[in-house]
Specification:
With 545 residues, the protein is α+β, with helices and mostly antiparallel strands. It has helices at 3-7, 13-16, 32-35, 61-70, 173-176, 199-207, 214-225, 240-249, 298-305, 359-371, 470-486, 540-544, and strands at residues 41-46, 77-83, 99-100, 108-109, 116-120, 123-126, 129-133, 143-145, 158-162, 185-189, 231-237, 262-272, 281-289, 313-319, 322-327, 332-336, 342-345, 389-405, 414-426, 429-432, 437-442, 448-453, 458-469, 493-504, 514-515, 517-527, 530-539. It folds into 3 domains: 3-16 and 39-269, Rossmann fold; 281-462, no CATH class; 466-544. A hairpin with a 2-residue loop joins strand 19 (414-426) and strand 20. Pfam families: DUF6345. InterPro entries: DUF6345.
């Protein structure tokens, strides 16, 4: 590109925010001299304003991309972040995705000038082609297609698409084989996704935890935003075995190019269970949560949740709001100081065994496990008069894996782990959102290999004498959510996908002191060829008033 074209972006975020602070800490156990022979450059793009191309805006995309870039490890460097009209389709096309740019730290621009790329925008896959929205009509036009991309001929090794329908969970190689020219992995979504500014931030929060793998960090970031979508992590290699090894084991970003002849991918697939919690009338009440207790007693907690035999903590590392404990036998306990959540992973999580038992068997085994360890979960035992707190099996999540090559050879999809999600209930009303849960994961050997709890401890309940009609307020919530989405410019149509009622419980990274009965409504908006899921949360008392 000419100097004139580069000068058009002189006021973009790449220059205004190049000295932004708060890049976080080095990931525990890093070995710089082994893992980073050259600079790990990051590049980000976001598009809030899609009006130039006649599509609905995505307000959360700026925070999404900046959350990723600002969450990076201390050894990684930002090359650029471009927003809105400065996101050029040309920068993703194979003929113009790497070019000299003396105004940038790396000296080059384009998607292939960075090791890690992250974009938040609209996207859709049709047949064997992915189409992504760019920032405007100039510099290549409003869209760019996967058939025009060629990733990895220069520096790009990892590409993150925070868009809808970017990486299918049914042979993603059908779209991405032709694009893979050295890139090691592509991350995206099989489904439409909830509009959120948290994906990028959550990825690096997860990735910096002791022992975290890159695949799990991405899938779990999506899970922390919403349980109603399917994230996919797709890895390349010269053969399926190599691609599978990278998918299952890679923990640090690598700089070497890799052949794209084979692909191995992992994804989450969840379904909701019948909880039997149908309410016609619900009371007006507010839960008060206690402050998170300290991370004391880590060894005792690991023993309670594990074999009940004494364990020793071998290493403790601080990572942002997370305190990471590694035991001598290889288990890792993560304690979040903002919410009091715990995430315990046992060595058996890495077992190569495949799940061949039913979901009903998984629910039975997980239920027995929780019942036998209730004292270990803060939030199950409460000392509040006339208040019943329990947990109920709510969802089952499959961690799926598969692989294929360019010649058409493939493995059948397999279940690597099955996770049973239990929701906290207070007087028969369950939590909604991604908090208020206990998650018990089993491997193919039926061993509990991971336990995660985002329960908050109820210390008091404020009740009013009145109650409300749940069905009537649900209809009001859905009508309001749909009207708000349809009122946005360039929205062609919308439909309510799902409505949940309960105590809204926030993610593990959020300090939450109260909760009240609320409705969570998911609306799918259609805008031109693209779609997005919009999440609306309405307190029941607000709707009733």
């Amino acid at each position: 590109m000419s100097d004139v074209l580069m000068d058009e972006r002189a006021t973009a975020d790449v220059l205004k925010d190049k000295n932004i602070a708060g890049v976080g800490t080095v990931k525990p156990l890093a070995e710089p001299e082994v893992l980073r022979a050259a600079q790990e450059w990051l590049g980000g793009w976001y598009i809030v304003d899609h009006s130039a191309c006649g599509n609905a805006d995505l307000p959360a995309t700026r925070g999404d991309t900046w959350g990723f870039v600002n969450g990076r490890a201390a050894w990684q460097e930002k090359n650029f972040v471009y927003g809105n009209g400065d996101v050029w389709a040309d920068d993703f096309m194979s003929s113009s995705d790497h070019y000299a740019a003396s105004n940038l730290p790396a000296g080059f621009d384009g998607v292939d000038s960075v090791v890690l790329g992250y974009i938040a925008s609209h996207g859709v896959t049709s047949g064997s082609t992915f189409t992504m929205s760019s920032g405007g009509t100039g510099h290549g036009g409003c869209t760019v297609k996967s058939t025009q991309m060629s990733f990895g001929q220069n520096d790009l090794r990892y590409m993150f698409f925070s868009t809808c329908q970017s990486v299918r969970n049914v042979n993603p190689g059908a779209v991405w084989f032709r694009t893979a020219k050295g890139v090691r992995a592509i991350f995206g979504y099989h489904t439409n996704i909830v509009d959120s500014d948290a994906y990028g931030k959550y990825f690096f929060e997860n990735w910096k935890k002791t022992g975290a793998k890159t695949t799990d960090s991405f899938l779990d970031a999506s899970w922390r935003v919403s349980h109603d979508q399917s994230p996919v992590a797709a890895w390349f290699g010269p053969d399926m075995a190599t691609a599978e090894t990278s998918r299952d084991n890679e923990e640090y970003f690598q700089l070497d190019a890799i052949s794209g002849r084979s692909i191995a991918w992992s994804w989450y697939d969840a379904r909701t269970l019948d909880r039997g919690l149908q309410l016609s009338m619900a009371p007006i009440m507010t839960l008060q949560f206690g402050a998170p207790r300290g991370p004391e007693g880590a060894a005792e907690l690991v023993a309670q949740l594990g074999s009940r035999q004494p364990v020793e903590i071998d290493e403790t590392t601080l990572s942002g709001d997370n305190v990471c404990h590694r035991t001598r036998d290889g288990a890792v306990l993560i304690y979040n100081t903002r919410s009091g959540s715990i995430d315990l992973t046992f060595p058996a999580f890495s077992s190569p065994s495949i799940v061949d038992f039913s979901d009903d068997e998984a629910v039975t085994a997980a239920t027995e496990y929780v019942r036998g360890r209730e004292e270990a979960f803060r939030g199950l035992k409460v000392d509040v008069a006339n208040t019943d707190v329990a947990v109920v099996a709510s969802d089952v999540r499959h961690s799926m894996v598969a692989s294929a090559d360019e010649s058409g050879n493939s493995t059948d999809p397999r279940v690597k782990h099955v996770t049973v999600v239990f929701r906290q209930t207070v007087d028969g009303i369950a939590t909604i959102g991604t908090g208020g849960v206990i998650e018990v994961t089993l491997n193919g050997d039926r061993e509990v290999c991971r336990v995660r709890s985002v329960l908050r401890e109820v210390v008091s309940v404020a009740r009013q004498d009145s109650a409300f009609d749940v069905a009537a307020l649900q209809q009001r919530a859905e009508e309001r959510a749909l009207a708000e989405v349809l009122a946005q410019p360039y929205v062609n149509e919308g439909r309510v996908l799902k409505t949940e009622f309960g105590f809204f419980s926030a993610d593990e990274s959020i300090v939450q002191s109260t909760a009240e009965p609320s409705f969570r409504v998911l609306v799918e908006m259609q805008t031109g060829p693209f779609a997005r899921i919009i999440e609306k949360i309405y307190p029941a008392q607000e709707l009733a008033g």
